[in-house]
Amino acid sequence: MSKTKHTSETPATHWLRQQKIPFGEHPYDYVDHGGAREAARQLGVPLHQVAKTLIMEDEQARPLIVLMHGDCEVSTKNLARQTGAKKIAPCAPETAQRHSGYQVGGTSPFATRKRMPVWVESGLLDYDTVYLNGGRRGYLISVASSVLTGALGARPVTVALGE
């Protein structure tokens, strides 16, 4: 059923098409607070292969994006150490939305309102394909993991907790 749903264009899919980057579309029924776990369950893909897009900020309130396994948390201490920041913390939802231009629960790392450095948990790059938000709630896209470090310019870090 979900494969036949019409998916409207988002800034993320528009950007990917402009860059001629192939991607798969995976709509699912959005569940409040279901997150990556619910998306992976509905789509039948491994949760560890689904990337959460997290908007965080450093001690000077400079925003950054972290792509993390759906079943892991980010060690903000290790992230700060590996990125050269003094301190990193998650943004408040309203702040995250202002930086990204996306509604929380539908945040994509592609075509954000504000250009931000992107960090990717290195384990995600072990997969040929990763699933991440396509720019709205209830909509994942799949891309080659090489797109994250290539077109997106994400830099690998090792900051996962809970593997």
From TrEMBL:
Enzyme class, spelled out: lyase
EC number assigned by the record: 4.2.-.-
Domain of life: Bacteria
InterPro entries: Prolyl-tRNA_editing_YbaK/EbsC, YbaK/aa-tRNA-synt-asso_dom_sf, YbaK/aa-tRNA-synth-assoc-dom
Keywords linked to the UniProt accession: Lyase, Protein biosynthesis
Domain YbaK/aminoacyl-tRNA synthetase-associated: residue ranges: 36-145
Family in the record: Belongs to the prolyl-tRNA editing family. YbaK/EbsC subfamily.
PANTHER family per UniProt: CYS-TRNA(PRO)_CYS-TRNA(CYS) DEACYLASE YBAK, CYTOPLASMIC PROTEIN
Stated name of the protein: Cys-tRNA(Pro)/Cys-tRNA(Cys) deacylase
